[in-house]
């Protein structure tokens, strides 16, 4: 019932709000974990982590409940980054799961994914993505870094 969106990009946080997140926290603030604990009054039942950093995976693991908390991360930290977990946390019942590539099977899924984009989410896609000409690559990267869009698409033809 209490869904918290956490990101360092205010544009993405506003999108999370539009998609139903009741609580939004900018994690560029060093006290963001404290703010999350204040909302839950205790640890979370479930946490999804998509940032792609070992630190955010470890932070997310700290935020889930003993005995029943579950962390699912679908991100890919840099090869040299490692997560460090106290084994006692696992003994207490915390669970952690990860996936490679979001469990997708592109050769089978691409047809379904393209249908979803084409039929059901075309307006969403058009609103939060933008197509750039190849010579606009720098502008596309600037727009992405400033949070103006979620996904730039380069037109190669």
Walkthrough of the structure:
The structure is a single chain. The chain has 157 residues and is α/β, with parallel strands linked by helices. Helices cover 41% and strands 19% of the residues. The protein has a 3-stranded parallel β-sheet, with helices on one face. A two-stranded parallel sheet has the order 1-2. Helix 4 (87-91) links the parallel strand 4 and strand 5 (95-98). It starts with a strand and ends with a strand. The mean pLDDT is 82.
Annotation keywords:
157 residues, alpha/beta, three-stranded parallel beta sheet, two-stranded parallel sheet, 7 strands
Question: What would a concise description of this structure say?
Answer:
It contains 7 helices and 7 strands; from the N terminus they run βαβαβαβαβααβαβ. The chain is an alpha/beta fold and about 160 residues long.
Record the SSE blueprint.
Blueprint: E1 4-7, H1 10-18, E2 23-26, H2 32-40, E3 46-49, H3 54-63, E4 70-73, H4 87-91, E5 95-98, H5 106-120, H6 122-128, E6 129-133, H7 137-145, E7 151-155
Parallel strand pairs: 1-2, 3-4, 4-5, 6-7
């Amino acid at each position: 019932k209490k869904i918290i969106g956490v990101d360092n990009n205010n544009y993405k946080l506003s999108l999370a709000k539009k998609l139903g997140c009741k609580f939004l926290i900018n994690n560029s603030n060093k006290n963001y974990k404290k703010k999350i604990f204040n909302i839950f009054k205790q640890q979370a039942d479930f946490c999804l982590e998509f940032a792609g950093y070992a630190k955010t995976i470890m932070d997310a693991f700290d935020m889930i409940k003993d005995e029943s908390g579950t962390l699912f991360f679908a991100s890919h930290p840099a090869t040299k980054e490692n997560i460090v977990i106290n084994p006692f946390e696992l003994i207490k019942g915390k669970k952690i799961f990860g996936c490679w590539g979001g469990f997708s099977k592109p050769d089978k899924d691409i047809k379904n994914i393209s249908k979803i984009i084409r039929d059901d989410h075309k307006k969403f896609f058009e609103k939060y993505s933008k197509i750039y000409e190849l010579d606009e690559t720098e502008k596309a990267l600037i727009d992405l870094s400033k949070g103006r869009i979620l996904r730039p698409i380069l037109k190669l033809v």
